[in-house]
Amino acid sequence: MGDHKEPGFATLSIHAGAQPDPATNARATPIYQTTSYVFNDADHAAALFGLKEFGNIYTRITNPTTAVLEERVAALEGGAAALAVASGHSAQLLTMHMLMQPGDNFVAARKLYGGSINQFGHAFRNFGWEVRWADPADPQDFAAQIDERTKAVYIESLANPGGTFVDIAAIAEVAHSHDLPLIVDNTMATPYLVRPIEHGADIVLHSLTKFLGGHGNSMGGILVDGGTFDWSKQGRYPMLSEPRAEYNNLVLHEAFGNLAFALGARVLSLRDLGPAISPFNAFMLATGIETLPLRMQRHCDNALAVASWLKDQDTVGWVSYPGLADDQNHALQQRYSPKGAGAVFTFGLRGGYEAGKSFVEGLELFSHLANIGDTRSLVIHPASTTHAQLTPEQQIAAGAGPDVVRLSVGIEDVHDLIADIGQALGKIDG
Ligand SMILES: *Cc1c(COP(=O)(O)O)cnc(C)c1O
Fold first, then answer.
1. Residue 40's pLDDT is what?
2. Which of 69, 75, 129, 275 is the Cys-Cys partner for 124 at CB 3.0 to 4.6 Å?
3. Whole domain around residue 24: which residue ranges?
4. pTM of the model
């Protein structure tokens, strides 16, 4: 015990945000499956609606089960506050809705989750929000694209699709030298491996659907406000720095200080756009997080063992996993994520496209599907599935050439995983 005061990561994963239920003494967090909450009296109702007092009104905006999930993830990321929503994509949408006006732009890493590339490049364009792509390995490429209408910089800490670590601190420096917030999607790393706020991130996003929930059974997303960014600059972020008519001309950053972004995302963006998470999913995801440190370490240990084994196979042309000592991303991994290199990586089959298809069909324990971050081991051959619509040149540029196989290594016994891969490789001709 001694004199240390701050609870550790594993303790926070289980206890942060939760206490025995005040109404029933239930130890596990109850699922408050209700849409709405009775006011104590008319003055109480008026105070809640005017943001003079915090309390529950309607589950689109707050719910006690969801609040446990929010406090827990905020604690694990070292943030000031968090807002949980229906999916990772809706967390991205609400974040940008808080920051962007029509005609504004943001600079994003070119290597992102495929769904984010679609959302930014197509859906956001309809709102008049422009994305500018930059090379995540080159911080100066971000700087070169910033102009007076740029409102944010956006990266993934551990980038899709291949699983490479990004120099968060270097990109944070570029963003901050232009008075811009750095937004980091930390889905693939989770706060067990990387805590982006410690490296300069101002807002951290997650698809809770993946490793945080961890069991492949519930969709959810969350935004974490680091409480670090100054939103006061006149005219720059009108949602945060200008009087809101719907709340008696309240100015969010003046009223709520370092909680202004998370609170504004709740009382303006979530209230009006509406992608609320179900209390049941919040319960499932908060329960999943209780075992996050155990699961993530096992994911990393299994992935390293599988990657090391793959490197020695004749049918395998190359393996790209930052945990391997000779990988070009190994130094960044050691710096940002010394506990492990994550669960997701790619490798190449010498037999190319046909070998890739035959391999995914030959696997028995790995599931062939388009997801990551399940307890189960998952596999996909991008060139015949997620990236099939691209030209061969685009496929190669996206890291999805004909020979590429992507694994999300689960937490089964690693000798079973290697045996399954071995038998599937054995079925490939050549
Ligand atoms: C899955 C994923 C998303 C989108 O999250 P959903 O919960 O599917 O909406 C965003 N970023 C990354 C890195 C992801 O893996």
1. 94
2. 129
3. 9-288
4. 0.96
